Amino acid sequence: MSDEIRTGTMVRDVYSRTEMNVKEPARIFAQVAAAHHPGAAVEESLSITCNGEPLSAVEVDSPHRGRLHSLSSPVGHVVIEYSATLTGLADPIEVDAIDEALYLRPSRYAESDELLATAYAEFSGSKDPAEIFDAVTSWVSSHLSYVPGSSGPSDGAGHTLLHRQGVCRDYAHLTTAFLRALDVPARVVGVYAPGISPMDFHAVCEAFINGEWLIADTSRLGPRQSMVRMVTGRDAADIAFLSTYSGYVELISTKIQATVRGQLPFDDHSTQVRLR
Predict the structure, then answer these.
(1) Does residue 151 contact residue 160 with C-beta atoms inside 8 Å?
(2) What is the pLDDT of residues 229-242, one digit of tens each?
(3) What pLDDT sits at residue 125?
(4) Of residues 148, 146, 166, the one with CA closest to residue 156
(5) Burial level of 41, CB count in 10 A (0-12/13-18/19+)?
(6) Fewer beta carbons below 10 Å: N end or C end of the chain?
């Protein structure tokens, strides 16, 4: 563990820029801001423009400290730009009484009910949540290949299990589905992730183990200790960085940067880590 993590003085810088052409007036929901980080010092800025002019947005709190920005856009070139510097580590995420029930249920992209037979066949050796967590995360990490472009936006955990390849969201969905099938509450988190390559918005799994939420990145693209929580939910349907309705929007580009000042933490993915 680095001194910055041990003392809680880690400094993380995150940035994203999303450009799109709005062809017909649209309702847009953006989830690009860092979640509320009580216990850490946060300096941030959010700029939303249409054809170079400021476009107003309403910030709405979403579950588990998340923040959604809602806006109505006219036709034009829209740019959403966000940056933040986080000094220190956030307090551990709260455990809500409804979490255990909500995150045991199958969902659109983490169809745990359809993977019950496979889950029991592969991981029937233990009833201890921590042992199940270790077994599932190790299996997913070793049985999938990270292949950009190998999955589509409508593919879920079943598709990933069949094809044994995917990107970060596919790893997170399969890990989450297996854990839920084995009665371990699990959910998907969108994060900024210093050290990953290729740099992008990143998705990981969070599992409820012995009274706390622990993070699993079965793609093992970067260290978990420096990841920054953005949005948390059942699966990709809840954590999409951009959703558009009632119009036509063409996404042009996204640019994401996430760094740690000083040395990037070392992570062999064998220890328990909370997302802070």
Answers:
(1) yes
(2) 999 999 999 999 99
(3) 82
(4) 166
(5) exposed
(6) N
Q: By the 8 A CB rule, do 70 and 27 touch?
A: yes
Which residue in 13, 2, 196 sits closest to 87, CA to CA? 13
Q: What is the pTM of this model?
A: 0.95
Nearest to 89 by CA among 1, 197, 184: 1
Give yes or no for residue 2 having a pLDDT over 70: no
- Render the chain in DSSP notation, one character per residue: --HHHHHT--EEEEEEEEEEEEEE-EEEEE--SPPP-TTSEEEEEEEEEETTEE---EEEEETTTEEEEEEEE-SEEEEEEEEEEEES-PPPPP--TTHHHHTTS--SS--GGGGHHHHHHHHTT---HHHHHHHHHHHHHHH-EE-TTSS-TT--HHHHHHH-EE-HHHHHHHHHHHHHHTT--EEEEEEE-TT-SS-S-EEEEEEEETTEEEEE-TT--S-GGG-EEEEEESSHHHH-SEEEESSEEEEEEEEEEEEESSSPPP--S-S-----
Query: What domains can you pick out in the chain, each with its CATH number?
Result: 3-90+242-260 (2.60.40.2250), 99-236 (3.10.620.30)
One-letter amino acid identity for 83?
S
Among the residue ranges 102-111, 125-134, 178-187, the one predicted with the least confidence is: 125-134
For CA atoms 28, 29, 31, 37, give the dihedral sign.
positive
Strand duo 165-166 + 145-146: pairing: parallel
**Arithmetic mean of pLDDT, 7-26:** 93
